[in-house]
Amino acid sequence: MIRVYGTSNTRAFRVLWMLEELGVPYELVKTDFHTGATRAPEFLKLNPNGRVPVLQDGELVLFESLAINLYLAETYGRDSLWPKGASDRARTVQWSFWAMTECERNLFAVLLQSGGEQFETWRAWTETPEFRETHPGQRMPSAEEGRAALQHPLRALDSHLDGRGNILGGGFSAADLNVASVLVTARLAQLDLGAFPSLDAWLTRATSRAALAAAAQK
Fold first, then answer.
1. Is residue 214 a part of any domain in this protein?
2. Are strands 54-57 and 2-6 parallel, antiparallel or unpaired?
3. Residue 123, SS3 per DSSP
4. Dihedrals φ, ψ of 6, to 5°?
5. How many domains does the chain have?
C-alpha cells in the first residue's frame, strides 16, 4: 500500500490529486507541520528536510511533490497520464521544473498576503524561528513583487497554450497536472488572470476535474 505523509492543504495535495487521477489505492498519514510532526525523529528518517509530502511505495521513499508525481505517473500511469514519447516525457519534466522555479514562490507570496483569514497560520509560520532555520536568508516577496514577477512566466505559458488544449498538445497528462497543481494557488489568491486567456481557460478545465475535488476532501 502506498503511503503519503502530509495534509491536503499542503503540497501533499499535488500527490493526492495524482493518485486520485491514477486510481491507485493509498493511505494518507496526516502529518501537520504546524504541530511539529515534521520535526519528529521518526519523520526525519523519511525526509531529513522536515517537510511534506513524503511518499512510501514499498522500499522506495521519496520527497518533493512534483518528483513524486513524475514517479507515480511513470510507474502507474503509462496508459493514461505518462507520455509515450521521449520528447514529451522531457517536456513533462521541463514544465514541472518551470512551475516550481518560475511561479511557486511568487504565487505563495501573493496568497499569503491576500488577506484571507484561512492563510493567517501560513503567514505567521513564515515569521517563526523554524521558518528562518529551514529557509535561511530567504525573504518572502511582497504581494506586489510577486504579482510583478509572475507576469513574464504566466505570459510564456499563455502563449504556449494558445491553440493547444493542454500543455503537450494532446489529452490531459502529468505535465498538466503538475503545472496546474502549482498554479491553482492563483485561484486561491484570487489573482486576476484576465490578461492570460488561454492559460485561464486551461486552468479552469484542469481544476474542474473530479480527481482534484476528491483529493481536496482528504
1. no
2. antiparallel
3. helix
4. 150, -165
5. 2
